Amino acid sequence: MFPGPGEGLSTPAGRPDTRHDTPDRPFAGRIALVTGGTKGIGGGIARRLAALGADVAVTYLRDRATAGKTVDELRGLGVRACARRAFFGDPQGDVPAAVVDWVTAELGPPTLLVSNAGTGVELSLLDTRRSHWDWTVETHARSLLRLVQCAPELRAVLAVSSPGARRVMPHAYGLLAASKAAQESLVRYLAVELAPRCRVNAITPGLVDTEAARSFGRHAELFATARARTPAGRLTHPGDVGAAAAFLLSDEAEMITGQNLVIDGGYSVLM
Length: 271
Prior knowledge:
The protein is α/β, with parallel strands linked by helices. The protein is 39% helix and 14% strand. The protein has eight helices and eight strands. The chain has helices at residues 40-51, 64-75, 95-106, 130-150, 174-194, 211-214, 219-229, 238-249, and strands at residues 8-9, 31-34, 55-60, 81-85, 112-115, 156-160, 199-205, 260-263. Strands 1-4-3-2-5-6-7-8 form an eight-stranded mixed sheet, sandwiched between helices. Strand 3 (55-60), helix 2 (64-75) and strand 4 (81-85) form a beta-alpha-beta unit. The chain is globular and about 45 Å long. The model is unreliable at 1-6 and 11-19 (pLDDT under 50).
């Protein structure tokens, strides 16, 4: 049984944060919202931000048990953390606004946003329906825009994109790719509109061995091909993505905005 739209896994420490930045915890006092942040790429980012001192709110879609374990792990890093179920693919509701209100009530207004929640259908474009389009684009593009609109205290935003936004995986990836391309365009426009108050960037991880990647029917073939041609000699790990994400969200990346950083061990530079 999943919690309803207003239910979540709350932090028992809803107190004002009196900590200060230190060299080893540069995100202390900052509040991060990581959508789809309980496992895989999102989980890697959430853990990295917590390890650097940020209080972290994560959303999940189905797996409440894993969400609870993730919250416990984040709290074990000495920060406040909470989780809530959120389906961002419904064009009729305003889930992003509800999520921002929830984070604000639990931890305070979010100052960092990672738009990572992802979903889609494994179909040829010719076999898709309007409902598939609405669901996919709402999740990846519209939710990014709406989250930013609802969180005026944001100082840094990061969207998690995909190589499919610019390259083709035939017969299965078209809608998700189109929604990611729209997401990347929003990143560039938002970066200009929100400057200098807030920086907006994207990251494009290479093929990462996650539960989501394994849901595609050809994952074993894709993993083997990627390993063989990646100059770094291995697949990208969630921790690799978390480290890059934390840098782009940090003050050290003050002059980086409107950009898309590829994290794939060199895979995409080869012909």
